[in-house]
Amino acid sequence: MSFLRNCWYIAGWADEFIKGQLVPRIFLNEKIVMFRDSKGMLQALQDRCPHRFVPLHLGQLENDQIRCAYHGLSFDCSGACVHNPHGNGAIPKAAKVRVYPMLERYGFAWIWMGVADRADPGAIPDFSAMDPQSAYIGKSYLHVKANYMLETDNILDLSHIEFLHGSSLGSAAVAQGVIEVEQHGETVHSKRTTHNEQLTPELERLRGIPAGQRVDRWLNVRWNAPSNMLLDSGYTPSGESRESRESGQSVYVAHMFTPETSSATHYWFGIAFPKTLGEEGRRLAEENIQWLLQPFTNEDMPMLQAQQEVLGDQDFWTLNPVLLASDGGAVRARRLLDKMIRQEQALNELIIP
Ligand code: FES
Ligand SMILES: [Fe+2]
Q: Residue 297 pLDDT > 50, yes or no?
């Protein structure tokens, strides 16, 4: 399977990276070791010593250098070997590892998996809704044994909440919601508006909606390549116009997917409540993320993993999937991503270790 390379993927929550600690992860089939250096910057190196190919994360981090645990070669943040304790200490030319640009923004750690010179901080999509400076963020993570595009299909087609999450997030009005799909440049929007909806009692309680009050709900998802999504979800009392959304409530949920392999995905998700809410915002963030974790873990994850087992290595499109009215956003995103991957491969300049 081919991946888009010249783009930013999520490497984790920024606060997962503590000075002095090595964090090994696999992205796009590549073993990577990451750390926060003494200046507070995020660094990422290929997690494979060029001597006998042991993982560098088994070694020691000292003075922003990783010393291999096996025979003691040391590598700095540029990937260069800077110390050879053997013989005359000369550094062999090939003693270097690949480095990956990293950045911290909106509370996430971002990693660039393509040509390092092309890493453009301006290409990070706007996730300011998740900025921990202005919002309390409930944060979570799941490791899902399914392809990352099955995950993006899942979020871009939220009709599934009626069926898969009927007792929590869904209701009988979702599949008949009004759907709009828009594409602006390389950004896809998949919007769904329900009318006269009766939410589940749990969702009413969490959102502070009077029991039994009918609402119109919007579930607007923005997709940015390769697989990072922001959901704006909100409600107004049923029958009020879209312009009156200020009177409704909106919450932002980020769904960030990074392929580990072609059949496993890192899934970071978070929910934001404005800091203007004070301590109540902090409490809501924690309560809501714990609540969301249940359907995501017990309903989405088993479904996607079962889907992956059926699909195996087969190409999604060659199986001729049936297309429904709700598939517009997901199909648009898949086609756009395929096109971006093809264009990138035509450049034929990628450094693949
Ligand atoms: S395997 Fe790393 S120094 Fe030998
Ligand atoms: Fe779901």
A: yes
End position of a domain, from candidates 80, 102, 123: 123
Are 96 and 143 within one domain? Answer: no
Cβ atoms within 10 A of the Cβ of 124, count? Answer: 17
- Give this prediction's pTM: 0.96
Ligand 1 proximity of 221 Cβ (cutoff 6 Å): no
Model confidence at 242, pLDDT cuts 50, 70, 90, reads low
Nearest CA to ligand 1 atom 4: 71
**Is 123 in a helix, a strand, or coil?**
helix
Q: What is the CATH number of the domain that holds 73?
A: 2.102.10.10
**Of 248, 257, 259, which is closest to residue 220 (Cα–Cα)?**
248
State percent of the chain over pLDDT 70.
Answer: 96
Residue-wise pLDDT for 12-40, tens only, equals: 999 999 999 999 999 999 999 999 999 99
147 shares its domain with 169: yes
pLDDT recorded at residue 335: 97
How far apart CA 174 and CA 178 sit, in angstroms, is 9
List 261's β-bridge partners, or say none: 264
In a domain, 1, yes or no: no
Average pLDDT on 154-170 reads 95
Which of 123, 157, 188 is at the close of a domain?
123
Looking at the 3D structure of the chain, how many domains does it have?
Answer: 2
Asked whether the beta carbons of 256 and 229 are under 8 A apart, the reply is: yes
Quote the ligand 1 centre to 332 CA distance (angstroms): 46
Residues 209, 329, single domain; the answer is yes
DSSP 3-state assignment of 240? coil
Q: What is the mean pLDDT of residues 274-289?
A: 96
Q: Is the CB–ligand 1 distance for residue 54 below 6 Å?
A: yes
Atom of ligand 1 nearest to the CA of 59: 2
Residue nearest to atom 1 of ligand 1 (CA): 52
Tell me which of 48, 54, 81 to substitute to probe ligand 1's pocket, judged by most ligand atoms within 8 Å of the beta carbon.
54
For the CA of 69, the closest atom of ligand 1 is 2
